[in-house]
Amino acid sequence: MAKFKRILLKLSGESLMGEQGYGIDVKRLNDYATQIKEANDSGVQIAIVIGGGNIFRGLSGAGKGFDRVKGDQMGMCATVINSLALSSALGAVGVKSHVLTAIHMEPIGEFYNKWKAIEYLEKGEVVIFSCGTGSPYFTTDTGSSLRGIEIEADIMLKGTRVNGIYTADPEKDKTATKFDDITYDEIYTRGLKVMDLTATTMCKENNLPIYVFNMDVYGNLKKVLAGEPIGTYVHN
Questions:
Q1: 68-92 vs 26-41: helix axis angle to the nearest 10?
Q2: HEC sequence for 51-102
Q3: Cβ-based neighbours of 175, under 8 Å, separated by 6 or more
Q4: End-to-end CA distance of the chain
Q5: How many other β-carbons are positioned within 10 Å of the β-carbon of residue 207?
Q6: Whether the Cβ atoms of residue 84 and residue 78 lie closer than 8 Å to each other
Q7: Dist. CA 96–CA 47, nearest whole Å
């Protein structure tokens, strides 16, 4: 894998909890910011999408009696909180960033515009996309796929709690084996849950590769960008 010019980095909201079980762990947040700064300093253009599962998940809320649309809107607001936190952490280490929202939330963030996002990226500034797609019934994985395709990213780097894609959930099945690379068609055939079906299909149809890796291990982002095989490469 060659070094990339422009990436879409998908971060897990749950990972921001660290060991707390809820909310934002400051150490984990600062670790992310430091790694992103290092990548940005190397010349890589970085766009980011963060989930909101450390605060609220619309789908799980619907299971507890919340209206699904309102629940998803609450989840969108959770992604804004995480995006603002990351933007603040990046500012503290000297990286200029912009929070772009898929729904109008000025002055909290700028309303999303592809051309404005690319303009910031080409200046070497980090862009953080929040609110998913701006519509209910879509996950932040789908939001990541959409934004990655729109800004013409070379790849989506999906930072998770595990170091790639396995034949089964490695946290539940100790016999699960890891893929170094896998095609989208094989993901469908095996029924693997890398992302939701809409997000996966969008990446396949628009030829946006994905690299799944463990972002919670400090230094892994640098290793991925250097081409070290520490995760799973998903491609057509």
A1: 60
A2: CCCCCCCHHHHHCCCCCHHHHHHHHHHHHHHHHHHHHHHHHHCCCCEEEEEC
A3: 168
A4: 15
A5: 10
A6: no
A7: 12
> Could you read off the pLDDT of 33-80 as tens digits, one per residue?
999 999 999 999 999 999 999 998 766 666 777 788 999 999 999 999
Distance CA 102, CA 163 (A): 30
CA distance 79 to 92: 20
List, for residues 181-235, the tens digit of each pLDDT value: 999 999 999 999 899 999 999 999 999 999 999 999 999 999 999 999 999 999 9
Question: For position 66, which CATH number holds?
Answer: 3.40.1160.10
Using CA atoms, how far apart are residues 10 and 159, in angstroms rounded to an integer? 6
This prediction has a pTM of 0.94
The count of domains in the chain is 1
Rounded to 5 degrees, φ, ψ at 7 are -125, 155
Residue 118 inside a domain? The answer is yes
Paired with 157 in beta bridges are 9, 211
Query: How, if at all, do strands 165-166 and 178-179 pair?
Result: antiparallel
Token pair of 187 as six digits: 């993901």
**Domain of residue 37, residue span:** 6-157+187-201
Q: Is residue 209 part of a domain?
A: no
User: DSSP string spanning 122-159?
Assistant: HTT-EEEEESTTSSTT--HHHHHHHHHHHTT-SEEEEE
